[in-house]
Amino acid sequence: MLKRILGRTGLEVSVIGFGGIPIQRISREESEKLIVEAYKNGINFIDTARGYSVSEDYIGTALENNNLRSMMILATKSPAKDYASMKKEVETSLEMLRTDYIDLYQFHNVRNMDQLNVIMGDDGAYKALEEAKANGKIGHIGITCHSADVLMEALKMDEFETIQFPYNYIENQGEPVFEQAAKQNVGIICMKPIAGGAIEKGELSIQYILDNPNITVAIPGMDCIDQVVRNAAVGNDLKPVTAEGLELLENIKKELGDHFCRRCGYCLPCPQGIDIPTLFSFEGYYLRYNMSEWPQGRYDNLQKHASDCIECGLCESKCPYNLPIRDMLKHVKETFGQ
Ligand code: SF4
Ligand code: SF4
Fold first, then answer.
1. Nearest-atom index, ligand 1, CA of 311
2. What is the pLDDT of residues 155-213, one digit of tens each?
3. Which of 27, 106, 218, 323 gives the lowest tally of CB atoms within 10 Å of its CB?
């Protein structure tokens, strides 16, 4: 497996990492088999999150039962913003992952500058991670985000050792951020390498991403052995994308482009308080990841739903991709029932 250095962390990670979202829909035993298979196929990087329900727990079991902890570089994340909450989250992650050390702990989905400023403030979560690092509980601190603008500001602070951002042939808005991160020797973890399952040619999509030398590791979500083997094979024999492959990706982009939300957040704020990109993201998990319970639960817990849209159209005037947001929200309403 080809390996790259994860920026200033110095960690040598396989270019294909194990994305821990989809194992929520399989059993503990099945996820254990997948992680062992990932290891056998040369994958040494696992990314999970406090927010992925049983994911940390399943991964912890798999690593413990198979003595794999020392063979894997482990990354997780929490949305906690204040010191006390983040301190607790780190302890919970350590317990769930059955380890006394997490290689990389990330701030999960920092949405805007207000959130970033809280995290970096006197009573902020950054202080908790710094402390955990000093106490040897975590190795490095990273940030995950869906907004290129916020991430660019975060890079200016020069406090993060890694960034995690969506990247694939359809969602390439992160490229200037990757350039900047690479200049600062910040490791770049690519989430959504197959656009949340929207790009059916998964291996080709991953190959395209890894053609970009700025990308350290792509973390496709996996929930079956066949996916693990196929994804790992890309990193085990990495070749540049051919002209034919690029044409295929371009065609996929054309098909999806008109209705594909890149989660850039430019459509916000909505006067009704609807978190538009999050709604589309949950729908993507529901439809394309073949999951229902987890996104349905998270959707139901939102304060505002697609049914709250009054069709004012303000969001559409701000979307740089000219998405028919109002129609798309009607679809979301049908999917989730409100
Ligand atoms: S059209 Fe709906 S979602 Fe868009 S801004 Fe208006 S109320 Fe919000
Ligand atoms: S709907 Fe448009 S503006 Fe809003 S997050 Fe998606 S791509 Fe960005």
1. 1
2. 999 999 999 999 999 888 899 999 999 999 999 999 989 877 777 788 999 999 999 99
3. 27
Kindly give the interhelix angle for 202-211 and 225-236, rounded to the nearest 10 degrees.
30
The answer to whether 138 and 101 have CB atoms below 8 angstroms apart is yes
CB of 87 closer than 8 Å to CB of 131: yes
Q: Are 326 and 227 found together in one domain? A: no
- pLDDT in the model for residue 325: 97
Q: Which of 190, 221, 242 is at the close of a domain? A: 242
Report how far ligand 1's centroid is from the alpha carbon of 311 (Å).
5
- Per the structure, the complete domain to which residue 301 belongs is given by 276-336
Q: In this predicted structure, what is the pLDDT of residue 284?
A: 86
Nearest CA to ligand 1 atom 2: 309
pTM exceeds cut of 0.90 = no
Distant-in-sequence, close-in-space partners of 278: CB < 8 Å, separation ≥ 6: 302
Pocket of ligand 2 (CB under 6 A): 261-267, 276-277, 319, 321, 323, 325
35 and 104 co-located in one domain: yes
Instruction: Report the distance separating Cα 70 and Cα 26, nearest Å.
Output: 25
Task: Decide if 151 is inside a domain.
Answer: yes
Instruction: Decide whether any atom of ligand 1 lies within 6 Å of the 309 Cβ.
Output: yes
CA distance 15 to 97: 22
Q: Residue 34 pLDDT more than 80? A: yes
pLDDT tens by residue, 49-99: 999 999 999 999 999 999 999 999 999 999 999 999 999 999 999 999 999
Domain count, the chain: 2
Q: Ligand 2 centroid to 253 CA: how many Å?
A: 16
Q: Which of 309, 318, 323 to mutate to test the pocket of ligand 1 (most atoms within 8 A of CB)?
A: 309
Domain end marker among 197, 220, 242? 242
CB 16 within 8 A of CB 43: yes
Q: Judge if the beta carbon of residue 176 lies within 6 A of ligand 1.
A: no
pLDDT in tens, 249-275: 998 888 776 788 988 888 999 999 999
Contact (Cβ atoms closer than 8 angstroms) between residue 21 and residue 191: no
Atom of ligand 2 nearest to the CA of 328: 1
Atom of ligand 2 nearest to the CA of 263: 5
Residues 237 and 288 in one domain: no
